[in-house]
Amino acid sequence: MGDEQRCLAYSTAAATLKSLPFTVTTMSQIVDLKGLGSGHCLKVLQETLDTGYCREVVSKRDSDKYKSIKSLTGVYGIGNSVAEKLYTSCNITSVSDIITSWGRLALNDERIKYGVAYYEDLNTPVTRETAERIQGVVRRELDQVTQGYKLELMGGYRRGKSSGHDVDLLVCCGSNDEDGGSTGGVVGSGGSAGGVGLATVSCFIQLISSFSNYKYFFLQAAYRKQSDRVSSMDNYEKCVCILKCPLQDDWTPDPMEDIQTDVSSLVTSGQNGDRGWRATRVDLVYVPQHQWPYAVLGWSGSKLFLRLLRRYASSTLGLVLTSHGLWNYCKRKLSSTLQGR
């Protein structure tokens, strides 16, 4: 709800409590633990132990604003700041409000109209089985494009989770392929963009992509160059897309209908219970060979774990850790001695 520092403090405290090998029943068991702080978090814990709940948490959870913001941030492409603006300035409280008020909202992010149209699909957890099927499809296509590549399923799946909200795939094709061209081969194999599309920023709406003998359709896709934007996570070349995943078990190559990209048509498609496919978010991320270990670490998560690693690298080792590498403050690179460590 806009208080990032308090959210971070709560997340750190929660992670600390989850790591304990025993059930907490009294404050004396945890009062000296690092990570709980000495202020508000301890008060919340004390109240929870005394009464079984926290009044502040219950009050915020049951507030109309919290419910509205939570619903709005569930839309693909809408973050906390946009949701706050929609709620306070435009009186938007739900996904249906966005649809009915679309003409006056001037939402420029192309992802949002797909987010509202396929809201239920994109908020349904993606099972590990589905994620591995998508990984297999990409692997079969990569087999046609190049050899000696690396393909890794990332995020919560790599941490052992059984489901996630999207599918993140890291692709590496060796040290001689530093420009991300192989990702272009995968994304553009249907002919709409091709490998050369990676030289420029391209939007692939209704991109037909052929994966071996199977025929899939990208519902929405956009290629992002390294120079596109500064990301808090990394600056890799990537294709952010929504994939139509067939609902049948064998994923046979059935022809799929073309969909108009205006909001009304997309909403109609999203409400069609007989469409035979489910919209699923898939991110293809190209990683140069020499940055692969750091990318795997960064894309494995979790956010809190990575933050603690970065803090340790900075405060203890005097280094800067990112998803691209481990850097020396002064020399701008990692010395061979530290690299061995």
TrEMBL record:
It comes from the Eukaryota. Pfam families: DNA_pol_B_palm, DNA_pol_B_thumb, DNA_pol_lambd_f. One of its GO terms (molecular function) is DNA-directed DNA polymerase activity. Residues 1-336 form the DNA-directed DNA polymerase X domain. InterPro entries: DNA-dir_DNA_pol_X, DNA_pol_B_palm_palm, DNA_pol_lambd_fingers_domain, DNA_pol_lamdba_lyase_dom_sf, DNA_Pol_thumb_sf, DNA_pol_X, NT_sf, PolB_thumb. GO terms for biological process: double-strand break repair via nonhomologous end joining. The keyword Plastid does not apply. Gene3D superfamilies: 5' to 3' exonuclease, C-terminal subdomain, Beta Polymerase, domain 2, DNA polymerase beta, N-terminal domain-like, DNA polymerase, thumb domain. GO terms for cellular component: nucleus. The active site is at residue 43. Keywords: Nucleotidyltransferase, Transferase. PANTHER family: BRCT DOMAIN-CONTAINING PROTEIN, DNA POLYMERASE TYPE-X FAMILY MEMBER. This is DNA-directed DNA polymerase X domain-containing protein. The lineage of its organism: Eukaryota, Metazoa, Ecdysozoa, Arthropoda, Crustacea.
